[in-house]
């Protein structure tokens, strides 16, 4: 069942705001006493479900009283967490209240004891990476599913079926989208609704964007480069963690020899060696890494399973957001939050969705959407490379292989079970304008199956850019301002519909990329049966950009270079959606860089 959508009218908003206005910018003793902390799950001090439920029911009598905070952040992914940490660390504390200074609302639940952590850190998945595929599949909720063909020719005679020759001859199952055309869909696009967002299961690749991938940026490249440095620190990027791995070294050497001019290198990954490096495990960075010690800051509050429904634009000052309407999904109670500053960082689809549902609809909202094409295959390494491991002259490897053989005399492979996976990339270049990952990792596809040893399998994922076109867009179920949407998604928000077509130039580039991938694959080995070269379902890259792009021209962008929404004094947006460029490289690091610039702007506003 969808959670029923709520939109409030101008008149209702006025009522709610009457209360709020008397409190704006004043310190709220109620919040300071900690009662809001009791109501909401707080980072760092998890409470039992019963305690939360009891606290929630106590506070429900108080729904009309707005929650007061300085900064309201929607979304707990890496971008929301970048804003939260940067503001709490860098803003002069005398401008912030001692409780609820930063209030974050997240529609998803907390899924691990460490709030927002990468789920792949569990030993289970480090021992068996393929079992993580199901975690990713379970986490991703598709955005736009066209109606299914419902005809079942073998259905028993008495069973119910939609009436033929009627307007009701299709199933309108909740979550399906009657307005979605299959040919223009990004069918694999999905949202992860969880504390930590997609960073609970991302691949952690953090390459630096090529200059051609930042052409459209309103931020000077030198400034962007220094923001990227800080972003790398926050998410703990390291390119050396896999360097001691036998397979990593072998694959890197093969590629470097075969493609000497392609700048083959280790993927810069958001990952650290496990404290006990001999365990062979690593710690993948998640939103918790980005948040760091902010998690324990008493000025920080997280409300999980709270849907941000609608921003309320001040009726007398259209350039100011006066409040945000939020629903506790566990109790279906609605709350008004009043802040000095609002940051919406809910991913590339849900960020414009919230703006749209708030009747904030600048002409570029949802437009200039780009998504990367993906070519994928898996290979089984050639025998000669396995032999070269067997005959290695490297004494460290010889020793590791000897130890492995002593423990596992029947294993036909000279590769220790704990040898880390290969993590290599061929970066974007002018001559080869795509990003290539030659590695082994879990996605929502590509598990190896029982007939091959995963230690000899290598995945090739090539990401292609798409031309920027204002007609490529996501729009939301048609509503006139102040009216309920005609169709809603599973969470009661206006249903997203994609209108995305790849240009002829995109298709040409995609074909060249596929050709390149097969050349690279053939240098390594033969195709794993079932994983031959293929283009993947559009949207699978999960790297949509542009839907609330930044820019210098308010006619072709939604926000300025600091990610502040045009025409608003207290509203910022964050996420890949702010990237104005066509990219092939993984975008999260760049989005974090833009969020750092946005956070500096927010701090300036708070300190005014
Ligand atoms: C399998 C996989 C692998 C990936 N690998 C990489 C990689 O290697 N490198 C890379 O750069 N990127 C990668 N990505 C993409 C990366 O995860 C995203 O770019 C990144 O998480 C975006 O961060 P974000 O905070 O903007 O959005 P998200 O991580 O999507 O977080 C947004 C949050 O907002 C919440 N939300 C949505 N709507 C509402 C609402 N109405 N109210 C309240 N909360 C709401 C969501 O629940 C979510 O938690 C990968 C993605 C996937 C799925």
TrEMBL record:
The keyword Hydrolase does not apply. Its cofactor is FAD. It catalyses: D-glucose + O2 = 2-dehydro-D-glucose + H2O2. It is an enzyme of class 1 (oxidoreductase). GO terms for molecular function: flavin adenine dinucleotide binding; pyranose oxidase activity. Keywords: FAD, Flavoprotein, Oxidoreductase. The keyword Oxidoreductase applies. It holds the Pfam family GMC_oxred_C. Residues 487-595 form the Glucose-methanol-choline oxidoreductase C-terminal domain. Its EC number is 1.1.3.10. Residues 284-370 form the Glucose-methanol-choline oxidoreductase N-terminal domain. It comes from the Eukaryota. Homotetramer. Belongs to the GMC oxidoreductase family. This is Pyranose 2-oxidase.
């Amino acid at each position: 069942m969808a959670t029923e959508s709520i939109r409030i009218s101008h008149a209702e908003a006025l009522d709610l705001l009457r209360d709020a206005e008397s409190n704006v910018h004043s310190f709220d003793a109620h919040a300071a006493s900690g009662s809001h902390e009791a109501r909401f799950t707080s980072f760092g001090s998890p409470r039992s479900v019963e305690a939360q439920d009891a606290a929630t029911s106590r506070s429900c009598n108080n729904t009309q009283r707005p929650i007061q905070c300085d900064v309201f952040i929607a979304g707990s992914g890496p971008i929301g967490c970048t804003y939260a940490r940067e503001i709490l660390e860098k803003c002069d504390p005398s401008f912030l209240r001692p409780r609820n200074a930063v209030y974050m609302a997240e529609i998803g639940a907390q899924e691990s004891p460490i709030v927002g952590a990468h789920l792949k850190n569990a030993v289970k998945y480090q021992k068996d990476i393929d079992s993580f595929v199901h975690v990713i599949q379970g986490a991703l909720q598709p955005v736009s599913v066209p109606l299914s063909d419902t005809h079942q020719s073998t259905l028993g005679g008495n069973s119910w079926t939609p009436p033929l020759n009627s307007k009701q001859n299709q199933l309108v199952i909740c979550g399906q989208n009657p307005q979605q055309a299959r040919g223009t869909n990004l069918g694999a696009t999905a949202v992860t609704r969880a504390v930590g967002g997609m960073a609970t299961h991302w691949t952690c690749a953090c390459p630096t964007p090529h200059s051609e991938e930042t052409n459209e940026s309103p931020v000077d490249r030198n400034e962007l480069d220094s923001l990227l440095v800080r972003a790398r620190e926050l998410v703990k990027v390291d390119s050396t963690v896999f360097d001691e791995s036998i397979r990593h070294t072998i694959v890197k050497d093969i590629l470097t020899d075969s493609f000497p001019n392609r700048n083959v290198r280790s993927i810069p990954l958001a990952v650290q060696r496990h404290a006990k490096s001999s365990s062979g495990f690593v710690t993948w960075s998640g939103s918790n890494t980005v948040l760091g010690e902010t998690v324990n800051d008493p000025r920080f509050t997280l409300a999980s399973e709270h849907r941000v429904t609608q921003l309320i634009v001040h009726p007398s000052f259209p350039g100011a957001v006066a409040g945000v309407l939020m629903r506790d999904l566990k109790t279906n109670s609605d709350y008004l939050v009043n802040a000095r500053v609002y940051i919406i960082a809910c991913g590339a689809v849900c960020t414009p969705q919230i703006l749209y549902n708030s009747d904030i609809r600048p002409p570029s909202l949802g437009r200039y959407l780009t998504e990367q094409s993906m070519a994928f295959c898996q290979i089984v390494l050639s025998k000669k490379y396995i032999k070269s491991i067997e005959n290695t002259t490297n004494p460290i490897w010889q020793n590791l292989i000897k130890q492995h053989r002593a423990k596992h005399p029947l294993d036909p492979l000279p590769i220790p079970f704990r040898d880390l996976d290969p993590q290599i990339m061929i970066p974007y270049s002018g001559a080869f304008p795509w990003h290539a990952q030659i590695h082994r990792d879990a996605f929502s596809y590509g598990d190896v199956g029982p007939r091959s040893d995963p230690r000899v399998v290598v995945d090739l994922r090539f990401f292609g850019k798409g031309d920027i076109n204002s007609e490529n867009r996501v729009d939301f179920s048609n509503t006139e301002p102040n009216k309920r949407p005609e169709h809603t998604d599973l969470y009661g928000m206006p249903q997203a519909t994609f209108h995305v077509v790849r240009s002829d130039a995109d298709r040409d580039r995609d074909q060249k990329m596929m050709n390149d991938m097969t050349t690279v694959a053939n240098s390594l080995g033969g195709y794993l049966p079932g994983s031959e070269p293929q283009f993947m379902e559009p949207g699978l890259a999960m790297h949509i950009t542009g839907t609330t792009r930044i820019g210098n021209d308010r006619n072709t962008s939604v926000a300025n270079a600091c990610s502040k929404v045009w025409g608003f004094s207290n509203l910022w947006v964050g996420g890949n959606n702010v990237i104005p460029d066509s990219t092939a490289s993984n975008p999260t690091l760049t989005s974090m860089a833009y969020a750092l610039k946005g956070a500096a702007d927010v701090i300036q506003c708070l300190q005014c």
